[in-house]
Amino acid sequence: MDSGLQHLALRFFILLCCLFQATAEDGSWKIATATLSRDKDGSSSSGYGGYSAGLSGKLFNRGSSCGACLEVRCVNHIRWCLQGSPSVVVTATDFCPPNSGLSSDYGGWCNFPKEHLELSHAAFTGIAETRAEIIPVQYRRVKCGRRGGVRFSLNGSSHFFQVLISNVGLDGEVVGVKVKGHTTAWIPMARNWGQNWHSSLDLIGQSLSFEVTLIGGKTIASYDVAPPYWRFGMTYQGKQFLS
């Protein structure tokens, strides 16, 4: 075979391998570890039926994974995994910080680059015995099934406007947000942390509309979500992403 044709054939083979690998990894089970969250009051699970998880830095990805849904199951541990390896679906709601004072293999479960989940009580006991200190798990990304619309929780001041976006369906992972007052055009917001988005705007006294874009590319606009008399500390509901 001509050397040019050999080179072309090799590139085509590599392309096919890459495509196959991407397809195989999409929605496939990945290996991690999990522990029971120390959040005793379940505050991080608020709004998600008690099924939530804190993610290690590698999985949390600087907050961009906040809101994503993961199916998790305990595997390969006869003593701690529940019979039949049942799975639960959790929402990523928090960051599991590293502990540089402890080894990644003993106590520093969330140290980089470990893939680790701190599961809420409801989620952990749905797949493993409560007495377990740490369990081997498999996880995969799944679509988020939500009740009601996307929620917009407002905070800030006259010089700083912030919105926490939650209860997001489909991908669950928000990558872009715009806000619009009734006297303004659409204004892009910047990610503060997780799914907190902010802007240095004074929108007090204006009705508020929001445009939300997911990692999968879908965008939805919710008009006049908050009335002109909205207040900081209040939560309003908009449209929901549908399959």
Note the run of SSEs as H and E: HEEHEEEHEEEEEEEEEE
Q: Could you tell me the number of beta strands?
A: 15
Query: What's the CATH architecture of the largest domain?
Result: Beta Barrel
What is the level 1 CATH name of the largest domain? Mainly Beta
The CATH topology label of the largest domain is Barwin-like endoglucanases
Q: Give the integer mean of the pLDDT values.
A: 84
Helix segment count? 3
| CATH homologous superfamily placement of the largest domain | RlpA-like domain
Low-confidence stretches at least 5 residues in length (pLDDT < 50)?
1-25
Percent range for β-strand residues: 35-45%
Helix content: 10-25%
Task: Tell me the overall shape.
Answer: elongated
Rg, please? Answer: 21 Å
End-to-end span in angstroms? 49 Å
Provide the domain count. Answer: 2
User: What is the structural class?
Assistant: mainly beta
- Largest sheet: number of strands, sense, barrel closure: 6 strands, mixed, barrel
Family: Belongs to the expansin family. Expansin A subfamily.
Main location: secreted
Function: Causes loosening and extension of plant cell walls by disrupting non-covalent bonding between cellulose microfibrils and matrix glucans. No enzymatic activity has been found.
Subcellular location: Secreted, Cell wall; Membrane
